[in-house]
Design a protein that fits this description.
The complex is a heterodimer of chains A (520) and B (452). Chain A has 520 residues and is mainly α. Chain A is 47% helix and 7% strand. Chain B is an alpha/beta fold and 452 residues long. Chain B contains 14 helices and 14 strands. Classes of the chains: A mainly alpha (520), B alpha/beta (452). At the A-B interface, helix 10, strand 5, strand 6, helix 14 and helix 15 of A face strand 2, strand 3, strand 4, helix 4 and strand 10 of B. Chain A: Its cofactor is NAD(+).
Chain lengths: 520, 452
């Protein structure tokens, strides 16, 4: 095949690369990668090959063992940032089947090289690669991509030219979920690698698909094998986990088992893990169909909270996290509740990023304040009861019915969404028992809706509620231990089973008033 | 409320200490250490330290945890009228009374070593039936080769199917060290922490595995690479299990007793010196006409002292925060040796060979007299333990000590006896000393001494 002529490398592309860089957590403007990326990158990106294990579904959180940073919500992110090259090429092919799974194979290196060349705007290199790899690239990297024959006016480029290149459209990277994930991972890994190399740290990155479905002992074992092979000092070299709740839980368990206790660090990348999973001591995996049936209460050495990770979260995930913030507000902090009530929508849309203009202000903005309060209130409850010796826990609010519900409709509801539905129902119970006024109840529900959280679900039937409460009674040493709000921002724990009539009335009213808001 | 004012004039980092008080079921932090008013339900021992810099806030949580566990001697634990196995772990007398009065049958899940099941199985079943316990017995081949996560998960699976109360129905482990370790780990993982009880059936488990907090399984061909520091709710010690232990395994256990004696108890050393052989012959049992009623005294005296000295060392350092541990004596070289010749040396035997060599090192350093050293070796031989092994080469010793450095924060932390029943930890033993000691050790013990 002949080598196609190089398209001009255009300043426009370079600028857009920098913009891309702004999405990164450290906020620094990254330097442009120079040199010859495909080969250089390949040396570093052994990890890319592991992408074959990433599941098609919610690319939830990726675990990494010392380094790689895996972002959330692949396709959305990928699409918008990769339009840098698209001005030149428009593809008429837009047929993608999202069900095709990514086929790993020996072409994986080529895929990575290809994408990275594209990524770092070394389009000329991409062009060079394509003639040799295009067919494989298409079938291996982008199995959903429809093969197109170039239109006739392009033939002047030369015979035997790889037709494909002319129809190449970087937008396909955005549309194809596989490619989008590959690119994101590649970019994020490169950032983390840059960080460690600048500090001359010996590192090993282990990206793993840490989804709820994979949250099992096998994943823990895989991490342990990697840790063992890498070799860390017993006390001074902590394992670092970067990801959402599932990731942090799984790595935490692996770390607590290795040598009976290995220090580890958590870096949460979702809002839910930011306010919840990261601050407690619990670690765990699912077992025999039960959530978190195996685990430990070994806290991390440290948790580092950087809100800029939240920028790459889809809105639904932000709402998901806000449910846990709301939980703490309802249980013990009126101020936080009022903040969420007044500014919840704004926080949601800005993804809890602080406004630039407030940097020099002496006041804390709402994003900073709300996360700070959520964490402080959580720490207050967890620190005196780290090992759950006391089964009366305010933080259980929203967690009496939601486990059943969540498992029943898995994966339709995210954890925080299920928690919110539980809380919403419990608010009606509280009202029925005269603990909160109608006005307070309505304010709470309105707040929830403002946070774009579901407040009702058809699968949350009265039968499910009753079953959950019976289970609760059974497993909490004979007492219901039900936290209920007793006003806005304070609560109490109730020990006796709720009277049948109250439960039914509350359920009826809850359904009457909220069923129309529908399932989320 | 959307903004919280900071003190903008204070350019230094702000630091604050908060205690935690509970008011009407809700925990709140309170600045400083001053006592709170009467409305407080209780005050926690935990504290939160807050530090504010221009980068943000940093909270440090200090949450102490207290483990309480019992190590209880009993006799005839499988006698149906002895309720130790079922209720011995309960501390609260009210709770105990309530249970005894209640008609509700007890529920227990028991994991028992396969070999132990063969000997004691029927009596165990009889015990449980007589006490109307709802039970499930899971016999497993708990050998060193099987000491893996797979076996621990198998236990968890069965426990999960059986359905135990989260707090009040402990899992019971009956067997040797391997069994107790595996069940301990399974119990610490299930529901993040499930109470469990240990019933050791070998001498080694009796004085060692049963009294500490460690649990674990092997991983990637390394001993005890995975585990936890979760102690059992209780350990029940019944010497009568030792009757059915082979002689070699009793010696095996005696090695660990000797270790404690050499490190910190002259009295125990003298007891083993004088009565070691008898204890072996009688298998620590009381009834033996040859030696008269001194038997019971010697057997229980020995085990009690061994356990007490062990508890003294473990209790203040349950999670091994302090890597200087006298109980590491005999455990610097033995892991490598044990793995090297597996399965020809039992754990205690390897430990003894290590200790024997270290005694020569002590003497070479002038910490022990020649006479003391000989007494110790004679005692070991009297306990029918190996005092030398050809696989314990200078190379293996050096390799082990290098490993020790790596895994103990850069120091050897080598416990060495400095007299009979006294020891200290040393970090500076030179190669010359080690070598000279090795030569002497081989000369004196290599040819004639008992070794496997």
């Amino acid at each position: 095949m002949t080598t196609p002529s190089k398209p001009p490398v255009n300043d426009q592309d370079c600028i857009k690369l920098e913009k891309l860089g702004d999405h990164f957590s450290d906020g620094n403007t990254p330097e442009l990668v120079t040199g010859s990326p495909p080969k250089k990158m390949m040396d570093k990106f052994d990890g890319v090959r592991r992408l074959s294990t990433i599941s098609e579904r919610e690319p939830d959180k990726l675990d990494t063992n010392p380094d790689s940073h895996e972002p959330l919500g692949g396709s959305e992110w990928g699409g918008s940032s990769l339009s840098m090259c698209s001005d030149k090429f428009r593809s008429s092919s837009s047929h993608f089947s999202s069900d095709d799974s990514y086929q790993p194979g020996t072409g994986a290196d080529d895929c990575a090289a290809l994408l990275l060349a594209c990524l770092y705007c070394h389009f000329h290199e991409l062009m060079v690669l394509l003639p040799d790899t295009c067919e494989r690239a298409v079938s291996r990297c982008f199995p959903s991509y429809q093969y197109i024959v170039a239109s006739s006016e392009r033939d002047q480029q030369g015979k035997d030219c790889c037709n494909f290149k002319l129809e190449l459209d970087c937008n396909f990277c955005g549309s194809c979920q596989d490619a989008g994930e590959l690119i994101e991972l590649a970019m994020e890994i490169s950032e983390v690698i840059r960080y460690f190399e600048a500090r001359e740290v010996a590192y090993k990155i282990v990206p793993l698909p840490t989804t709820e479905e994979n949250k099992c002992m096998e994943l823990v074992t895989k991490i342990l094998e990697e840790v063992h092979e890498f070799g860390i000092d017993r006390r001074s070299e902590p394992i670092i986990a970067i990801g959402g709740g599932v990731c942090l839980d799984v790595v935490g368990l692996a770390a607590s088992l290795y040598r009976r206790r290995t220090p580890y660090i958590r870096v949460p990348t979702t809002l839910l893990s930011y306010v919840d999973a990261s601050v407690g001591a619990k670690t765990g995996v699912n077992f025999a169909g039960g959530k978190n049936k195996l685990g430990s209460y070994v806290p991390p050495l440290a948790t580092f909270l950087d809100r800029s990770f939240l920028q790459t979260l889809p809105p639904r995930q932000i709402s998901n996290g806000m449910a846990e913030m709301l939980k703490m507000a309802l249980m013990k902090h009126r101020g936080l509740f009022e903040l969420l009530e007044a500014e919840g929508g704004k926080l949601l849309h800005t993804r809890l990023q602080s406004c630039e203009s407030n940097n020099s202000s002496e006041h804390e903005d709402s994003a900073t304040a709300s996360t700070r309060i959520a964490i402080e209130t959580m720490l207050e409850e967890l620190a005196p009861n780290l090992w759950e010796d006391d089964l009366d826990r305010l933080v259980d609010f929203g967690h009496l019915i939601s486990p059943e519900l969540e498992m029943k409709v898995l994966p339709a509801l995210l954890h925080g969404e299920a928690v919110n539905i539980d809380m919403s129902f419990m608010v009606y119970v509280a009202h029925q028992r005269g603990l909160v006024t109608a006005n307070e109840k309505d304010r709470i529900i309105r707040c929830m809706l403002g946070l774009e959280l579901p407040v009702w679900h058809q699968e949350c039937t009265l039968a499910l509620v009753q079953k959950s409460l019976k289970e609760r009674l059974k497993h909490s040493a004979g007492s219901l231990r039900m936290p209920l709000p007793t006003g806005l921002g304070h609560a109490e724990i109730f020990h006796d089973m709720i009277e049948e009539n109250i439960l039914c009335q509350a359920y009826q009213k809850w359904t009457d008033e909220l069923a129309s808001s529908g399932n989320k | 409320m959307g903004k919280v004012p900071f003190d903008v004039n204070n350019t230094k980092d702000k630091k604050a200490e908060f205690s935690l008080v509970q008011v009407k079921g809700t925990w709140k932090r309170k600045l400083g250490k001053k006592a709170s008013d009467g409305r407080v339900d209780r005050v926690s021992a935990a504290k939160i330290y807050e530090s504010i810099t221009d980068k943000g806030i940093s909270w440090t949580v200090v949450s102490p945890i207290v483990f309480t566990y019992k190590v209880t001697e009993t006799q005839n634990i499988l006698d149906p009228s002895n309720d130790t196995l079922l209720l011995g772990h309960i501390n609260d007398s009210q709770q105990l009374e309530d249970i005894k009065k209640s008609n509700k049958p007890l529920k227990r899940f028991l994991v028992i070593d396969q070999e132990v099941q063969k000997i004691y199985g029927p009596r165990l079943t009889e015990f449980l039936e007589a006490n109307k316990v709802q039970y499930k017995i899971l016999p497993l081949p708990t050998t060193e080769e099987n000491k893996s996560m797979e076996m621990a998960l198998e236990i968890v699976k069965e426990v999960n199917n059986f359905s135990l109360d989260r707090r009040t129905e402990p899992i019971i482990a009956i067997g040797g060290g391997v069994c107790l370790d595996i069940v301990g780990l399974a119990a610490s993982l299930y529901r993040r922490r499930t109470p469990y009880i240990r019933v050791p059936t070998t001498l080694l488990a009796y004085i060692d595995a049963s009294v500490g907090a460690k649990t674990g399984v092997n991983f990637a061909n390394c001993k005890n690479k995975l585990g936890a520091y979760i102690p059992p709710t209780a350990s029940f010690l019944d010497l009568s299990f030792i009757q059915t232990v082979p002689r070699r395994h009793i010696s095996n256990g005696l090695a660990e007793m000797l270790k404690m004696a050499l490190m910190k108890h002259r009295g125990l050393f003298e007891l083993l010196e004088k009565h070691g052989h008898m204890l072996l012959d009688t298998k620590f049992q009381a009834v033996n006409n040859v030696y008269g009623c001194n038997n019971l005294q010697a057997a229980s005296q020995a085990t009690r002292t061994a356990i007490m000295t062990m508890l003294e060392e473990l209790a203040p350092n349950l999670w091994e925060d302090d890597l200087n541990r006298l109980v590491d004596f005999g455990h610097l070289i033995s892991p490598a040796l044990e793995m090297e010749v597996l399965p020809s040396l039992l754990h205690g035997e390897a430990v003894n060979i290590d200790m024997s060599y270290m005694v020569y090192v002590s003497q070479e350093r002038g910490l022990l007299t020649e006479e003391e050293m000989q007494r110790i070796i004679r005692c070991m031989v009297g306990l029918e333990l190996p005092v030398w092994h050809e696989a314990c080469t200078m190379e293996l010793i050096q390799r082990s000590l290098q490993d020790r450095l790596k895994h103990s924060g850069g120091l050897y932390r080598m416990p060495l006896p400095v007299g009979l029943g006294q020891a200290e930890i040393f970090n500076d033993t030179s190669y010359e000393v080690l070598h000279r000691a090795y030569e002497k050790w081989c000369d004196e013990l290599g040819m004639s001494s008992k070794h496997l």
